[in-house]
Amino acid sequence: MNTEPRTTTVINTAIAEDKPASGGFVGFLKRSVQQSLAFGTLIALVLFFAIASPNFFTWTNISGVLLSTAVVGILALGTTFVIITGGIDLSIGTGMTLCAVMTGVFVTNMGLPIWLGVLGGVATGALIGLINGTGVAILGLPPFIATLAMMMIAQGLALVISGVAPIYFSGTPSFKQIALGEMIPGLPNAVLIMLVVAGIAIIILSKTLMGRFTYAIGSNEEATRLSGINTRRWKIAIYVFAGAFTGIAGVVLASRLDSAQPQLGMGYELQAIAAVIIGGTSLLGGRGSIVGTLIGALIMSVLLNGLRIMSIQTEWQTVATGIVILVAVFVDSLRNKRS
Q1: Considering its fold, how many domains does the chain have in total?
Q2: Which position among 75, 95, 216, 283 has the lowest Cβ density within 10 Å, counted as fewest Cβ atoms?
Q3: Which pLDDT does position 38 carry in this prediction?
């Protein structure tokens, strides 16, 4: 039986709020307003901290903000796909750490070429995504539980594999150029990597079947399944894709620190998820954008950097982050009720 017309109808209906070409002009307008509000918030934060501290609005500090945004931004880009499907991924922080450790093992301990070690780190992230996706799509586990378990597993494996000690890349000095080199003078390569993967994410989310099915699953998974689409297979693919972003973030973080620190990672998942929500992606699924996520990641980085420059204690920085997450979820809840 030919299910193509029915499938197309379901997908177009599911993503109508996010794609103007599908007839969702009102949804597109709402998304534009949300992104404008997020961008306005970013500008307001920059102006506030620029006034509060003369050291904020310097190119050295701005470059540092962009550099710190790169890791959270890359994590958030992958997480955007998962959250649009109506899922969640709590394992990206410790998963990133495990990917960094595995990159260190491949490059430093095993002496593999840098490119192969980087590929191994990204593949580790994809494997984490595969396990998460299988747990959610095949075993029927709630995404929160499946990824919470993976968060603990990844944290433990990172400590075990590294021997609870950092793995340094002192034998391969060129490794740190992945993140800290400057193909464009004054702009760290990590930022370029974030922009490149963001471009890839935009194309995939807006121009490919994976993107269309991501919106469709998040909007109405049952209707999408009944239309003849193998939602289990696509959910696994989405988690694997997001996991690859976790691997890229792990490589960038290891390169930035010139070492794989097995005790880092906890807390990054909260910043990434907050960036996604601030950018307008709905926790209920079916709505989101890559541009909004990038703006959200910048907001998180500017906030933490500004508080640090103002000599606010780390404990209060954590409180501020928690408040931002709470406000973001509250605003998302209001958006969903109005919809």
Answers
A1: 1
A2: 283
A3: 81
Q: Domain of residue 160: give its range.
A: 38-45+54-338
Task: Kindly state the average pLDDT of the residues 63-83.
Answer: 94
Coil, strand or helix at 151:
helix
The confidence score (pLDDT) of residue 167 equals: 96
Instruction: Write the secondary structure of 204-272 as one string of H (helix), E (strand) and C (coil).
Output: HHHHCHHHHHHHHHHHHHHHHHHCCCCHHHHHHHHHHHHHHHHHHHHHHHHHHHCEECCCCCCCHHHHH
What pLDDT score does 258 carry?
94
* Length of the chain in terms of residues written: 339
| Closest by CA position to 91, among listed 265, 237, 279, 240 | 265
Q: State CA 186 to chain mean position distance.
A: 25
Q: CATH code at 107?
A: 1.10.3470
Query: Does any domain span residue 297?
Result: yes
Q: Distance between CA 217 and CA 285 in Å, rounded?
A: 8
State how far the Cα of 76 lies from the Cα of 83, in Å rounded to an integer: 10
Residue whose token pair is 């992958």: 78
Q: How far apart are the first and last CA of the chain?
A: 35
- Identify whether 24 is part of a domain: no
| Chain-centre distance for alpha carbon 297 | 9
**Residue 249: inside a domain, yes or no?**
yes
168: three-class secondary structure by DSSP? strand
- Nearest CA-CA partner of 127 in 242, 236, 243: 243
Is 331 part of any domain?
Answer: yes
> What confidence category does residue 34 fall into, taking pLDDT thresholds of 50, 70 and 90?
low
Q: What is the pLDDT of residues 273-288, one digit of tens each?
A: 989 998 889 888 888 9
pLDDT at position 55 is 85
